[in-house]
Input
Amino acid sequence: MKIELLMIGNEILIGKTKDTNSNWMAKRITKYGHNIKRITTIGDELEEISNALREILNREPDIVITSGGLIKEVKVL
Output
């Protein structure tokens, strides 16, 4: 089973927060015999998140797991 992890958060990219989520998930997923094919870390921007998800889906993984991602409030006019 091909699995990709998408970690989302500006705080990870600037080094404010250590990404322990992907490590924790990878240990448990591989423990049960599955393969992590890629771990991607991106910022909190909506366009960046949607682009990353499109790229991941183009690689056709069996499962995509996301973590984080606080999107700023958007005002609709």
Summary: The CA atoms of residues 10 and 16 lie 9 Å apart.
